[in-house]
Amino acid sequence: MRVVVFSTKPHDRQFLGAANAGRHELVFLEARLLAETAPLAAGAEAVCLFVHDHADAGILGTLAKLGVRHIALRCAGFNNVDLAAAARHGITVARVPAYSPHGVAEHAVALFLTLNRRVHRAYNRVRDGNFALEGLLGFDVHGKTVGVVGTGKIGACFAQIMRGFGCRVLAFDVARQPAVEALGVEYTTLERLLVESHVISLHCPLTPQTHHLINAGTLAQMRDGVVIINTGRGPLIDTRAVIAALKSGKLGALALDVYEEEEGVFYEDHSGAFLADDQLARLLTFPNVLVTSHQAFFTREAITAIAETTLGNLDDFAAGRPCPNALKA
Ligand code: NAI
User: Fold this and answer.
1) Positions marked catalytic
2) Which residues line ligand 1 (CB under 6 A)?
3) Which of 197, 243, 238 is nearest to 215 (CA)?
4) Could you give the domains of the chain?
5) Per-residue pLDDT tens over the stretch 303-329
């Protein structure tokens, strides 16, 4: 089966190629799937997409006309695919629901510890011969209250790690997980979590309900100096509101692995140009903001699992078998 793989980087070609072992014809493209690049899927029965590929109703219509019948997402989130439109066009969609929730949770913890103990500043400082401690004061994590929004696979791992640090962990989710409660995590309302937490980490999916979950109103409910970590999806946070909260000092630190307008910026080298996004440029001026380029998933274990599950999903489609990772509209 011919599969056009959009948005590929060298690691995609390496790991997907190895997992494929020659059974499907994988056509690797660097281009993202957009209206203007959709015709590149001509001749393929399936396309393989990543987080910045757009599969909206118009693009799905183009893909369907070209004969594409399946979308294999090589990621967990599926907010970039219009599932209802895919169903109307007879295109099935499968994803990789879990690969390494530990890796993503560990990255969230890494961002938090780096920011709290100012490791990012200390690293540059000592290399410049500056061994002063001013500006590097952090706080003990032990005994602090950590709020976890979304306690699925990744949120549960994050909660477990923070329990290991000796934190009190509050959680908010639309569905309680007994296994998470067994870790000593206390489910509560979003309001109480916002009011009581010293650190808040976002692990819920992006939906109309969670869009701009962090906004001027919710920020106002939080403790002064609260730390927010987002490894979920960029639009969970209203960027303008967090910039205002950073300027006022309400927000003590902000760790972002995802950003509202990351498409076209993240995963590319812009070092020889300028940042056209003024909000991102502003965020990068704050010493207490740490941004990574949607890399929380980027571990050897995760990439291997993503490639193997994606190829398994493609095998299921090619064989006409029901796929356990299929998404329903
Ligand atoms: P999951 O599906 O296992 O867990 C999501 C949890 O969020 C579920 O328990 C669900 O009940 C809960 N939830 C849904 N709506 C909610 C709401 N309105 N308020 C509070 N909780 C709500 O997903 P998983 O694997 O834990 O991933 C979570 C998110 O992390 C993904 O949706 C994706 O956007 C993001 N992600 C980011 C990665 C990165 O590299 N930065 C890598 C993988 C996932």
Assistant:
1) 233, 262, 294
2) 76-77, 98, 101, 104, 149-155, 172-175, 203-207, 209-210, 231-233, 257-258, 294, 296-297
3) 238
4) 2-99+300-319 (3.40.50.720), 101-291 (3.40.50.720)
5) 999 999 999 999 999 999 999 999 998
